[in-house]
Design a protein that fits this description.
- The chain is built from 4 helices and 6 strands; from the N terminus they run βββαβαβαβα.
- It is α/β, with parallel strands linked by helices.
- The protein has one domain: 2-Layer Sandwich (Transcription Regulator spoIIAA).
- It has a 6-stranded mixed β-sheet with strand order 1-2-3-4-5-6, with helices on both faces.
- α1 packs parallel to α2 and α2 packs across α3.
- The protein is globular.
């Protein structure tokens, strides 16, 4: 069963103990760093819930082009997750080329393991069956 760990105006973080999985959803446009001042702290707190080799299903369908500082914030968060035992990420992106381009730029710097999917169910099924 999923449990809300963090509920903010711009994102939610849920956790499922049975799957050792976070569900991260971007809810609104992050126009600057001031709208997500607790983002890294929230992930640090969320990480107290999981065990090593956790997975993340990211629903980024509301993702917009990143503005100054947001790329770096995502990179820092992804590195934090990797340092704390992230095994794999499944992302759902908007159906636009620029969204995957932006996500790839971030991922190239963090080296976070990830696959991109078109639907929540595809992403969930992938993570349910993923093995190193």
């Amino acid at each position: 069963m999923k449990e809300y760990i963090i509920q903010r105006e711009f994102y939610d973080i849920l956790y499922c103990n049975e799957k050792n999985r976070f569900y991260f959803t971007i809810l609104n446009f992050w126009r600057d760093l001031h709208v997500v001042p607790h983002y890294l702290e929230d992930w640090e707190y969320a990480l107290t819930y999981c065990k090593p080799d956790f997975t993340i299903l990211t629903d980024a369908r509301n993702f917009k082009v990143n503005v100054k500082g947001i790329h770096e914030l995502h990179i820092e968060a992804q590195k934090l997750l990797l340092e704390n035992g992230l095994k794999m990420t499944a992302e759902i992106l908007p159906p636009f080329e620029w969204a995957e381009y932006e996500a790839n730029k971030i991922n190239k710097k963090s080296n976070m393991p990830r696959f991109v999917f078109k639907s929540f169910q595809e992403a969930e099924d992938f993570l349910d069956n993923y093995e190193l």
